[in-house]
Amino acid sequence: MRTRPGPWRTRQGLAVQEAAGFGCNRWTVRQDFKALAASGHALEHGPGNDRSYSLNYAREHRHAPHRIAPDAPAAHPGLGLARRSGR
After folding, report:
1. Where are the domains of the chain?
2. Which of 11, 26, 64, 86 has CA atoms 20 to 30 A from the CA of 32?
3. Tell me: the pLDDT tens digits for 56-72?
């Protein structure tokens, strides 16, 4: 979903899983999408007979890997960004 933004339907999920070598069917893909939505990683769109899913960007940005943890060191000394002490 990150590599192809926009709405995903069952057929796109099925194509990705088949390309990855998983032998699955439409029901399995639907269950995977439902699990992603239930965990907050995806959003459901449309009525039950025309359902699509998209990435929940609000959740993805909150857990983005480029963010620095509060307890992380101030900077890497090799980058010339070390904290100055006493000033």
Report:
1. 10-65
2. 64
3. 988 765 544 444 444 54
